[in-house]
Amino acid sequence: MASTFSDMTPQIKLSFVGTAAEDAVFGRGVAALCRGVREYGSLNKAAKNMSMAYSKAWRIMKTTEEAFGVQLLERDGAHGSTLTPEGDRLLDAYEEVQRRTSAYAAAALKELLAE
């Protein structure tokens, strides 16, 4: 049977790891919460959009902020939340590293499996 790999694509799971706490990561989940806050102006709405309890989303964000030593969200009580400039910067950096890594992996896979 002839083998073709034309329908294969690599999937990269990127995480930024904090040095202060070994289990602290800024990965897909935290990035999705941050994107939701950016889009909806609310951590609660971001969590609901991900079918996640607000309390869990709050704990995740708080743990991440503590581990990285940076405030990601500006909380305004009942008026919602916004990303801080540092939160925006970290999310943008995460998305760009993810984009570049995925593009590199796709090109490398194509090259390595070329017939």
From TrEMBL:
Superkingdom of source: Bacteria
Transmembrane segments: none
InterPro entries, per the entry: LysR_HTH_N, Molybdate_resp_trans_reg, WH-like_DNA-bd_sf, WH_DNA-bd_sf
Database matches in Gene3D superfamilies: Winged helix-like DNA-binding domain superfamily/Winged helix DNA-binding domain
GO molecular function terms listed in the Swiss-Prot or TrEMBL record: DNA-binding transcription factor activity
Domain spans labelled HTH lysR-type: 37-87
Name of the protein in its database record: ModE family transcriptional regulator
Source organism of this protein record: Slackia equolifaciens
Higher taxonomy: Bacteria, Bacillati, Actinomycetota, Coriobacteriia, Eggerthellales
